[in-house]
From TrEMBL:
Species name: Williamwhitmania taraxaci
Transmembrane segments: 12-37
Gene Ontology molecular function, alphabetical: phosphotransferase activity, for other substituted phosphate groups
Positions of the Bacterial sugar transferase domain: 7-169
Protein name from the UniProt record: O-antigen biosynthesis protein WbqP
Pfam families listed in its UniProt record: Bac_transf
Keyword Transmembrane helix included in the entry's annotation: yes
Keyword terms of this UniProt record: Membrane, Transmembrane, Transmembrane helix
Record carries keyword Cell membrane: no
Family: Belongs to the bacterial sugar transferase family.
Length: 183
């Protein structure tokens, strides 16, 4: 049995559970943003994925497309808590993203990669990864890429599960901090 197949099974199973769990929240955010923007609340941006393949990543729109300004107080909250990335769960189900893997970069960033940095393009991009759980401090671009390459070299299903559990804990912490800052 191929490890890649097991990773895809893990992605699909957990992705489906997360979509079902968060579907009411996804629909509520979608509706609120639809009313605020009066246009499609889903934002698409071209990124570079596995093997240098171009694809569109989706997020909830947090900038008013008419004014190019953040809307309401909801926008910074969605970004701080990463709730703007919930639509990416549907991309996990479709097989375009993995739950765990290097975050996909813009084409102009990939064009500046050094040879060793291109190794990160060997893996399917993910919603979270080793660098998202490794530190709370701001990392330089090369440090991000070093952690992504390290993830690829160390990959295992156990590592993916550890990253998923740690990501869940960090996301809950971000959410509670953002709620406390609102009050």
């Amino acid at each position: 049995m191929s490890w890649i197949w097991l990773k895809r099974l893990l992605d699909y199973t957990l992705g489906l559970l997360l979509v079902l769990l968060f579907l009411p929240l996804i629909l509520a955010i979608w509706l609120i943003l639809k009313l605020l923007f009066r246009c499609n609340p889903i934002y698409k941006q071209e990124r570079i994925g596995q093997n240098g393949k171009h694809f569109n990543i989706i997020k909830f729109r947090t900038i008013d497309p008419h004014t190019q300004l953040p809307t309401h107080r909801l926008s910074p909250f969605l970004r701080k808590t990463n709730l703007d990335e919930l639509p990416q769960l549907f991309q996990v189900l479709a097989g375009k993203l993995s739950l765990v893997g290097p975050r996909p970069h813009l084409a102009e960033h990939v064009a500046m990669y050094e040879e060793w940095q291109k190794e990160r393009l060997m893996a399917k991009p993910g919603i979270t990864g080793l660098r998202q759980i490794s530190t709370t401090k701001k990392l330089r671009f090369n440090e991000h890429l070093e952690l992504d390459v390290e993830y690829i070299k160390r990959w295992s299903l156990v590592l993916d599960l550890v990253i998923i559990v740690k990501t869940a804990g960090l996301q809950l912490k971000k959410f509670w901090i953002a709620l406390e800052n609102k009050s």
